[in-house]
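Subject: Interface between my chains keeps coming out wrong

I've been trying for a while to get a sensible model of this assembly. When I model each chain on its own everything looks fine, but I need the whole thing in one frame so I can look at the contacts. Pasting all components below, labels as-is. Any help appreciated, I'm running out of ideas.
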Amino acid sequence: MTIGVLAIQGDYDAHRLRLEELGVSTVLVKKPEQLDGVDAIVIPGGESSTMLKFLERDGFLEKLRDFVRLKPSFGTCAGAILLAKEVENPSQESLGVMDMCVRRNAYGRQLDSNIFEADTTIPGGPLEMVFIRAPKISKLGKDVQVLATYGDDPVLVRQNNMMAATFHPELSQDKRVHEAFVQLVRASLENPVKQKS
Amino acid sequence: MSERNGNNGLRLKTGLAEMLKGGVIMDVTDAKQAEIAERAGAVAVMALERVPSQIRAEGGVARMASPKKIREIMDTVSIPVMAKCRIGHFAEAQVLQELGVDYIDESEVLTPADELHHVDKHAFKIPFVCGARDLGEALRRIAEGAAMIRTKGEAGTGDVVHAVKHMRQIVKDMRQLTVMGEEELYAQAKELRAPYELVRMVAKSGKLPVPNFSAGGIATPADAALVRQLGAEAVFVGSGIFMSDSTTFAPAAEAEIRARAIVRATTHFDDPKVLLETSAECTGAMKGLAIAAMAEADMLQKRGW
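Reply #2:
Try treating it as a single job with all components included. I did that and got this:
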């Protein structure tokens, strides 16, 4: 199993290190053709507006969109924004694959960044959540499963083989969120999604 | 490390720097430039009254930018906004924190306010970035609470030679530590004038405990790629994008092309094909000022202790 980590900019190295701790081989993906060699993709935290500049050239966005329709994907923070069907504050382009609306910088600026603990459906007790200039999931489609909430807000969600977090599990010691994603990738390798029209 | 707002405080501070890695932070002097920077793919902007090359050319006391101007820039872009305070000027830092900027640069580009002390950065919730020329200076700033280090280089010159010198020095100093015996680290800490605990931490990991960026004279896509290949995790570009010489702004369209090209070169720093494309796209770079021809007294990098 090889998992790609989108490495245009952001904390892709933290994701790479975490996946390697879990025994998964990784590829840092900077160009569309590199998607051909990976079984899944992680879209890291960073600035979604910067990542879009790169995705909007050389057919990267279309290629990535086709990829995440067939193979597992996991987005954290900026990654969650890019996976969402709708983005607000401001409205911007995205892959548009997860049935949710994400509001950028919804909690405020860096002064409002914080670390919390909250419950999750992933076994093993409460999860530490590092929120940095975090977005908020403001609307959620009925097919999206909530894996963790903070207050009233869904913060970790799953739809088929897509996962998204508005916080940064890659910046915590707790490996459970990445383990859950690796399991999902493993399951998808056993049962690949058939190409849909 | 002692952190008065706790280990979580430091994690949040370095956490934002993690999000900026691989990106370009651009100096801007108004909302219009900030918009251009964001559109070109900057990961953050540094809000300034004057860019370093103007400060250098015009002289006078350089202070924190006016809060009104910083606010205008914060209201314009969705990416993080940084602002500079003078070395040791903790009251300017308090103003910037109250304003809610995302990062404070305690910067040698502004006129220092204290000849002995830097700001006690642990006392703030907002993260700080500080300049350094070598590992000792970097670790002194980290001991004071800096959550990101950048090379000083020589700001406002468009000459990359000292950004290179400082990055090479920091990397070399770190490499040296990794091959030293435990007993040698005590003497080396004295030599570096840095806390032993931090010296030991670097000796074990071979890298700084906070992100390590580069600044000070980066003006072209190839400059950005150069410092990235030398170990910088992201780059600050000051006068190099919006200026055509020390005091004249480049046409907006030209600045935007440069900004885009530097952003692309920073991500694809190890891909000569992209570097050729981005270098070819740029029409002209800032005229600049050769550091070798500069009097030592004019060097901003000497500020900071």
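Reply #3:
Confirming on my end. The mean pLDDT of chain B is 94.
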